[in-house]
Amino acid sequence: MDEHSWKFSQCFGDKGDIENITEADIISTVEFDHTGDFLATGDRGGRVVLFERNENKKNCEYRFYTEFQSHDAEFDYLKSLEIEEKINKIKWLKRSNQSNFLLSTNDKTIKLWKVFEKQIKIVAENNLSDATSTPTNVSFNNNNSSALINSFSSNVNLSSISNLKLPRLTIHDTITAAQPKKIFANAHAYHINSISVNSDQETFISSDDLRINLWNLGIADQSFNIVDIKPVNMEELTEVITSAEFHPIDCNLFMYSSSKVYGSIKP
């Protein structure tokens, strides 16, 4: 019988500096993307930190990619309830272009994020050389357009196109940016414990203690309740939903578990 052994490969953070770790720094969820090239972590402070695979290393190692504040602490004044910023779950969408998309959720709100590389460009050359100048404080309209053209012509030799220089942009730096694309809120009365993206990459489900909702990624203000185990009398409550997950291939099949049983649903 073959024996398999596990070998420790990499550690993020400083294990020796435990005394300086705050409550917000504690990691609450981790998730690989579908390719394994990216790793996402969420913490109790509402931050999402992304790592990318280092292709220059023979072993599987990851390096810091970017981080952003996904959720902030909120207060529900109608229910007099404080909503923590802690990230409960992160789910990646399959990559279809140069950008990455992922869902992150705290107890009440789900957000769709776009993570992309943004080029910062600067003007490398002025519009005109230092030897020439252009008239200033002249408004362009039908009355003074001829005067403006004559004034410009006297300063620039239009007979030679080499005397006219257009501005040229060059890439100064490339940064990784995160942008919220959709916010899915006001659909759960209880704490969200899981989210799962459908294989069709168009819908996803979110589950709390008593309900599971179906969302469309393009529609943030509407969801459909597909599972509801809330009893008429809450004193008769005997179980709560603990997790829900779509089938990786069949888009019409998902599974959920409760504190008592688990089962699958197919319409």
Write the layout of secondary structure elements.
Blueprint lengths: L26 E6 L5 E6 L3 E7 L8 E8 L4 E3 L4 E3 L5 E4 L7 E6 L4 E14 L21 H11 L13 E16 L9 E4 L5 E5 L3 E6 L2 E10 L12 E6 L7 E5 L3 E4 L2
Antiparallel strand pairs: 1-2, 2-3, 3-4, 5-6, 7-8, 8-9, 9-10, 11-12, 12-13, 13-14, 15-16, 16-17
General description of the model:
The protein is mainly beta and 267 residues long. It has three domains: 21-119 and 174-186, Methylamine Dehydrogenase, Chain H (7 Propeller); 125-167, no CATH class; 188-267. Helix content is 4%, strand content 42%. A four-stranded antiparallel β-sheet has the order 1-2-3-4, with no helix packed on it. The longest helix has 11 residues, at 145-155. The protein is globular. The protein starts with 26 loop residues before the first strand and ends with a strand.
Q: Would you count the extended β strands for me? A: 17
Q: What is the CATH homologous superfamily assignment of the largest domain?
A: YVTN repeat-like/Quinoprotein amine dehydrogenase
What is the strand arrangement across the widest sheet?
1-2-3-4
* Overall pLDDT metric: 84
Low-confidence stretches: 129-140
Strand content: 35-45%
Count of all domains: 3
The helix content is under 10%
Order of helices and strands: EEEEEEEEEHEEEEEEEE
Distance between the termini: 43 Å
Which radius of gyration do the C-alpha atoms yield?
28 Å
User: How would you characterize the largest beta sheet?
Assistant: 4 strands, antiparallel
Any idea what the CATH architecture of the largest domain is?
7 Propeller
The helix/strand class is mainly beta
Here the CATH topology of the largest domain equals Methylamine Dehydrogenase, Chain H
Number of helices: 1
**Which of globular, elongated, flat, extended, rod-shaped describes the shape?**
globular
The CATH class designation of the largest domain is Mainly Beta
